[in-house]
């Protein structure tokens, strides 16, 4: 695994005498060597609350104090050459950082698998290589010094597990020559400033043999260095093991090589696992600080800001340009919420050993396990067994700042247990617990007023229960009492007042039906769209029951980024209830990826049954539970259907809350759909904050006839639309375009029809063509926005007639194109893979 770049530009003016008098503070920081190249490509950076800032200021907000920067000799494009390093080092110093400079002695990345010489040095004999190493190192440091910058550390070589400058400096074939090359780098550093500490660096910081081989080889061959640098890149499942092994290695190294210190100069974990990453970082910092003799100098994250960039998946940033919760581990007072590992039971999938959690039981360890579905994600913790059982599932939280906390979660319980409690203990006070209420739905449960006085707390779920009795737990939080609960959706077919708003976990109004109802007091009301960090949530409010003698249905179509669904203008597949769950075959203005339907028996029917079905236009087939899945009879309030994990839209959940008529529908109720974001999008294309989706909704009979009610509303429409209508023939775009985290982009604008806009290919791996028509001679402006909402390109000119504009050189990602022609404005989404 490549872990290459190094720490940023430190503030040169940290006085040497001050460092000599007192121990330097623990180094917490990041290698951000890609920052200038990313900025040149249009990237911008934001705080966790969405305020745009310079990256160095954003990281300061996490109490980082150190920046690491890599140096290449003569790289293509100039990025990370000495001049580029100087520009970044000046910014780092101005922001108050300490600086680490990382010499790769290559024109590209150097790592354990490649240590290529710079092209200009390729033919040098060994003696000339020694001179080149010295001169390159010295001249770069003098360039920095002449501009007022003196690094605190300099790294000679990057991840030199087998030496550097191959083949001459390959350790496995000539350790002595590697040591000579390294020592020339050391000499150059000390000639520039004797107070700079020189770092030797290897990867796999958990591997004691690799560390002893390289550091011992350097010592045996009289090469000089001050600090032993390590890389550590664990996974979400093995990090507790690897950080423990890394600690053992660091402790061994400082004893084995007296007078030398250790530092974790690179680390990272998957960007989509911020809480496990946060926990790893907290643990790694604790273990590094504990190295004997205060010889553990610090921990640095490698390129945390590199989201959607160079196929790097170990950043600590989300696709909206904001830091994830992972970086909170660097704060001087880390949040207690970050002390929980795997709070949503999403990692390691269905298992009896969920990551981060322990089981206590004398004979019933198999009574606790994770399974689908979760309250907000894919999985939940379950206590259940076919025989009577007693089990406890828990975490012991360490390094908890003393204070008052609350333990909260979402829970279900069958009831009847002898004991079924969420509890907190061992925090320095009397144990506290709350019994889970009996409920078939997910309900909030909490243990308040946990006063931690000893820096630790055990939290968990414990059950003493009879055969078949069940408790379920999900979305566990351990937070300060002043921390507000994260908004969450409850998939029950209705939007409560608390679920409607503008933040994550809340519904935004996307469209309201304002036309007449061809069936009196029945039909559509409104469409709501919301999202969380892991789900897309849709609510189609309306009343489907017919006063007559036939079934009626609420129908919703969805288009998301990157999927090859049914193109706009193409009649959708359909048929009988046998081959297709949706008989309806409309022709839509938008591409359709998925269709959803809830059909309801008439008021006059005794059973008044409700059926749910859906179809994938991506695969061109019904999706189980596809063909009219029975939700029940009677009031039909919030029946939930969960999609099997083996099929399209795995983990999706659906609920319908029935009302007999619109006058009775006073609480935004109807068809509610929750889809994991991971099930949407396509290869290289994620769906989340900033993503554009398109939606169309209708009210139909059982045989494919569309009544008057559709969203967006067709102005002036008073008669039924009929069987399989062609919505492309209706003026104005007949769909709602919605940007997650923002709001409605377009609904029934006449612009799309007038401008005849298309973009192809989409997705694209290189260039895409935007085609449109300009009625008459008018001013035209195109603005292109990236996923963070930053404008990255603008085209403005006067045009007439049919136009084609080629968009190229856009980095991989998702873009929103806003086209304005005179007074007409429309938008499109473009995906670059």
The gist of it:
The chain is α+β, with helices and mostly antiparallel strands and 833 residues long. Residues 1-20 form the signal peptide.
Structural class: alpha+beta
CATH class designation of the largest domain: Alpha Beta
Q: Unreliable stretches, pLDDT < 50, 5 or more residues?
A: 1-22
Radius of gyration: 30 Å
Organism: Hymenobacter cyanobacteriorum
Keywords: Glycosidase, Hydrolase, Signal
Family: Belongs to the glycosyl hydrolase 53 family.
Pfam families: Glyco_hydro_53 (PF07745), Por_Secre_tail (PF18962)
Overview of the structural elements:
The chain has 833 residues and is an alpha+beta fold. It is 15% helix and 33% strand. The strands form 6 sheets. Strands 22, 23, 24, 25, 26, 30, 31, 32, 33 and 34 form a 10-stranded antiparallel sheet that branches.
What are the salient characteristics of this protein?
alpha+beta; single chain; TIM Barrel; 4 domains; ten-stranded antiparallel sheet
What is the secondary structure topology, with strand pairs?
Layout (H helix, E strand, L loop, with lengths): L15 H6 L5 E5 L3 H6 L14 H6 L5 E6 L10 H13 L3 E6 L22 H21 L6 E4 L14 H22 L4 E6 L5 H13 L6 E6 L6 H18 L4 E7 L6 H16 L6 E7 L55 E3 L7 E4 L8 E4 L5 E9 L5 E11 L5 E7 L6 E4 L3 E14 L4 E9 L5 E10 L26 E6 L10 E9 L3 E9 L8 E8 L34 E7 L9 E7 L4 E2 L6 E4 L4 E6 L10 E5 L12 E7 L15 E10 L3 E7 L10 E2 L12 E4 L3 E5 L3 H5 L2 E3 L7 E18 L5 E17 L5 E9 L2 E9 L1
Parallel strand pairs: 1-2, 1-8, 2-3, 3-4, 4-5, 5-6, 6-7, 7-8
Antiparallel strand pairs: 9-12, 10-11, 11-18, 12-17, 13-16, 13-18, 14-15, 14-17, 19-20, 20-21, 21-29, 22-23, 22-30, 23-24, 24-25, 24-26, 27-28, 28-29, 30-31, 30-33, 31-32, 33-34, 35-36, 36-37, 36-38, 38-39
């Amino acid at each position: 695994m490549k872990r290459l770049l190094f720490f940023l530009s430190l503030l040169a003016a940290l006085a040497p005498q001050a460092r000599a008098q007192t121990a330097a503070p623990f180094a917490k920081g990041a290698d951000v060597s890609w920052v200038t190249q990313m900025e040149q490509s249009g990237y911008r950076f934001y705080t966790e609350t969405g305020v745009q800032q310079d990256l160095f200021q954003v990281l300061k907000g996490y109490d980082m104090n150190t920046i690491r920067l890599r140096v290449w000799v003569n790289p293509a494009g100039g990025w990370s050459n000495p001049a580029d390093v100087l520009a970044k080092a000046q910014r780092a110093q101005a922001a108050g950082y300490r600086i680490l400079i990382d010499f790769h002695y290559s024109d590209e990345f150097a790592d354990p698998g490649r240590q290529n010489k710079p092209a200009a040095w390729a033919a040098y004999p060994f003696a000339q290589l020694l001179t080149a190493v010295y001169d390159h190192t010295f001249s770069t440091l003098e360039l920095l010094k002449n501009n007022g910058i003196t690094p605190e550390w300099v790294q000679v070589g990057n991840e030199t597990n087998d030496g550097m400058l191959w083949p001459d400096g390959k350790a496995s074939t000539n350790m002595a020559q590697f040591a000579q090359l390294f020592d020339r780098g050391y000499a150059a550093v000390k000639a520039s400033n004797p107070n700079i500490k020189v770092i030797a660096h290897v990867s796999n910081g958990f591997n004691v043999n690799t560390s002893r081989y390289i550091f011992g080889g350097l010592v045996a061959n009289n090469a000089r260095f001050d600090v032993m640098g390590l890389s550590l890149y664990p996974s979400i499942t093995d990090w507790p093991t690897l950080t423990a092994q890394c600690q053992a290695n660091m402790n061994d190294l400082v004893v084995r090589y007296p007078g030398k210190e250790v530092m974790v100069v690179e680390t990272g974990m998957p960007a989509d696992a911020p809480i496990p990453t946060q926990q790893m970082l907290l643990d790694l910092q604790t273990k590094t600080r504990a190295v004997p003799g205060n010889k553990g100098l610090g921990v640095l994250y490698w390129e945390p800001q590199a989201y959607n960039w160079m196929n790097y998946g170990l950043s600590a940033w989300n696709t909206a340009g904001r830091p994830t919760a992972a970086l909170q581990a660097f704060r001087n007072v880390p949040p207690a919420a970050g002390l929980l590992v795997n709070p949503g039971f999403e990692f390691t999938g269905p298992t009896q050993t969920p990551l981060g959690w322990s089981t206590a039981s004398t004979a019933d360890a198999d009574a606790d396990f994770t399974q689908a579905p979760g309250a907000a994600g894919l999985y939940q913790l379950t206590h259940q067994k076919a025989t009577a059982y007693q089990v406890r599932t828990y975490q012991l939280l360490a390094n908890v700042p003393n204070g008052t906390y609350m333990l909260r979660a979402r829970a279900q319980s069958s009831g009847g247990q002898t004991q079924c409690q969420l509890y907190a203990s061992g925090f320095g006070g009397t144990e506290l617990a709350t019994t889970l209420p009996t409920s078939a739905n997910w309900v909030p449960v909490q243990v308040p007023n946990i006063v931690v006085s000893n820096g630790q707390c055990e939290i968990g779920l414990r059950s003493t229960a009879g055969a078949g009795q069940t408790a379920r737990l999900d979305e566990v939080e351990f937070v300060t009492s002043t921390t507000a609960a994260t908004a969450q959706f409850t998939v029950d077919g209705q939007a409560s007042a608390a679920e409607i708003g503008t933040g994550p976990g809340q519904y935004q109004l996307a469209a309201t039906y304002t036309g007449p109802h061809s069936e009196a007091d029945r039909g559509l009301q409104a469409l709501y769209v919301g999202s969380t960090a892991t789900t897309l949530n849709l609510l189609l409010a309306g009343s489907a029951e017919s006063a007559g003698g036939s079934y009626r249905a609420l129908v919703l179509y969805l288009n998301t980024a990157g999927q090859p669904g049914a193109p706009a203008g193409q009649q959708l597949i359909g048929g009988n209830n046998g081959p297709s769950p949706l008989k309806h075959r409309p022709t839509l203005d938008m591409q359709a990826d998925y269709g959803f339907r809830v059909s309801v028996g008439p008021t006059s029917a005794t059973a008044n049954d409700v059926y749910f079905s859906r179809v994938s236009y991506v695969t061109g087939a019904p999706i189980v539970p596809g063909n009219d899945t029975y939700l029940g009879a009677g009031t039909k309030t919030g029946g939930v259907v969960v999609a099997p994990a083996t099929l399209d839209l795995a983990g999706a959940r659906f609920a319908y809350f029935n009302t007999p008529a619109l006058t009775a529908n006073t609480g935004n109720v109807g068809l509610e759909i929750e889809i994991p974001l991971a099930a949407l999008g396509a290869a290289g294309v994620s769906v989340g904050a900033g993503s554009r989706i398109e939606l169309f909704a209708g009210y139909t009979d059982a045989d494919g006839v569309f009544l008057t009610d559709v969203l967006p509303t067709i102005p002036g429409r008073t008669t039924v639309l009929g069987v399989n209508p062609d919505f492309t023939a209706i003026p104005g775009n007949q769909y709602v375009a919605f940007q997650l985290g923002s709001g409605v982009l377009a609904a029934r604008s006449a612009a799309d029809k007038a401008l005849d806009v298309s973009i192809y290919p989409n997705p694209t791996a290189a260039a895409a063509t935007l085609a449109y028509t300009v009625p008459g001679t008018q001013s035209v402006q195109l603005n292109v926005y990236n996923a963070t909402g930053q404008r990255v390109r603008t085209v403005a000119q006067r045009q007439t007639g049919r136009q084609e504009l080629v968009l190229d050189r856009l980095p991989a990602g998702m873009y929103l194109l806003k086209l304005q022609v005179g007074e007409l404005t429309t938008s499109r989404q473009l995906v670059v893979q």
